[in-house]
Structures are given as structure tokens and as C-alpha cells.
Amino acid sequence: MTFDYTAVGFHTFDALCRPVTQIPPNGDTYFVEDFALAISGAAGAAAVVAAKHGLKVQAVGGLGNDLMGDWVLRRYADFGVDTEMMQRCPDFMTSSSIVTTRPDGQRPALHKRGATAGFYVGDDQVDRVLDTKIFHIGGVGLMDAMDNGRNAELLEEAQKRGITTTLDVFASKAEDLKLLRPLLAHTDFFMPSEEEAMALSGLSDFEDVCQFLLDQGVGAVVMTLGAEGAMYRDRQGRKFDIPAFQIDVVCTCGCGDAFNAGFATGLHLGRSLEDCIRLGQASSAQNAMGLGSQAVVTSLDDTIRFMETQPVRARSVHA
């Protein structure tokens, strides 16, 4: 296969600043300490981290015919990400965000949905898009053209071809479950945050949440718990929990997406599932230590070194 990792879905241009405690009133100006630009999104940030880890990566999604889209393509080129399947969508702007990072790392954002809603993988593009070992869809609920059945068709075809499938969402709400159900039956690894998983299931107990998702047909649930680590549950009854790394958080923008890419890196390397999650957590933790998605992630060697040497929190919530 040509690609190690293909990231389909939400690719966004982010402008970030910190620290922000409030928006200036009237026409006032507040000064900030840091400002950055980044590719982000549930597909975009994952694509960049996977490329930094040395995987051969393909990005699939939509951009507008604008300066933000130009910058995204240029930045992908910096990391060696293949963008042949990134579509310029007429009548759409590039999906873009202004991220106001708080002193504690939280990141309220102003977002323009843009071309993520407009791109579509045609029948003549399927073979190219699925020429990959790992197939990731990120941003379900934002892809208006793709969410109406096409994502499920691609995941089903990917599994038929023996491709490993992974799936993530973006700030899911209960009503998004109807979009996810057809996808979960063809997903090997579903990787929501605890907030997203609870919103989708309507449940609060983590074991119940995972079981609910497994009952939808997904092969395994990897639920990220922020500072409390991550938990793994699958249809074969395997379960384990792994604590988070101890870090000083700068910005949490893109942390879940970096986790997804780190997890995929572990799969690509043939690592154990525990190590896949630890690589995901190491990627996410490094991501959180700088302003903007993947700012501190540099290479696979550095991520593995971080994974092997960085202290972890005393326990996970389920330990």
C-alpha cells in the first residue's frame, strides 16, 4: 500500500493566542504573551503528528480557495503530507478557528465550519483514498456531504480490504449518535474523549459508556480521560487502564487528535495495545506542552523517549 496513514475529515486553520481570560470590551485591546498558527482538526492535527512520527501520510478533506487554504497546503508540504486528495471546494471558506487559550490550558474557540462541510470522496477516488494501512476518519458531525452515508461506505470498504479503521468525533452531542451508528459497525478502534462518549451515550458511568459503544458494533473503545489517563475496552472482553503523564499544560487544543496519531503510530510499528495507548498519550502530552496543535511533537524518537522517561500521574481513575 502507498500510505501508512490516511486522515479523512476535519482539517482546519487555527490562529491561537494565550493567555486569554476574557475578550476585550468595546474596541479595546488586550496584549497576550504567545501567538501561533497551526493546522488542527480531528483529521488535520492527526495527519501532522503521524507525519512527524515518520509515517507516510495522506490528508483527505476540503479547503476553500483562500489564503488560509493556501497556508494549510504549504504547511502540510513542510511535513511531507500528501495533499492530492485535499479538495478546493467552491463557495466554501477554509474551516478556521480563533483559539483563546486560557491560563489553565483550556481553549474556547470561535470557529467557521467552512469546507469540511463541502468535500466529498467520489467513486473514482475511493481506490486512492483507501490505498493505506490505517484509515482514520475524524470530525463526524461536521462533514455535511460525507456524513450522509459516505463515511460509512468508506469504512465498510476499508474493512473488506483488510485496512485497520479508526474513528473520532468533534464535540459530539446526543443527536450525533444517529450519524455514528452506521460507522461504528465498521470501526476497529473508536477513540472519543470522556465528554464526547458520555454525550453520545447519555450515560455517566465509564464502564456503562464503553459497553454502550461496544453494543453499537465497534471493535474496541479507547476513551481518553484527560489528566486521568485512558481506558481500553474491546468486544473480546479485554480491558485495561493507563495513567496520564505528569506535565505542565500550556494548551489542550489538538490533544485528542495527537493521541489518535500516536495510537496509529503504535499500530504501524506493531506495538502492543498498551504501548499504542502510551504512544498516544505521549503524543497528546507533548501536544499540550506548547501553543497550537503538535507544537512540541518533533519526531518518533523523541516521542518514544518521552514515553519511556516522563513521570506519570500516581493512578488512573480506574486503577
Automatic annotation (TrEMBL):
Kinase recorded as keyword: yes
EC number: 2.7.1.-
GO terms under biological process: phosphate-containing compound metabolic process
UniProt keyword list: Kinase, Transferase
Top-level taxon: Bacteria
UniProt entry tagged with the keyword Nucleotidyltransferase: no
EC class (word): transferase
Ranges for domain Carbohydrate kinase PfkB: 32-294
GO cellular component terms, A-Z: cytosol
One example GO MF annotation: kinase activity
Stated name of the protein: Putative sugar kinase YdjH
Species assigned in the record: Maliponia aquimaris
Gene name of this polypeptide: ydjH
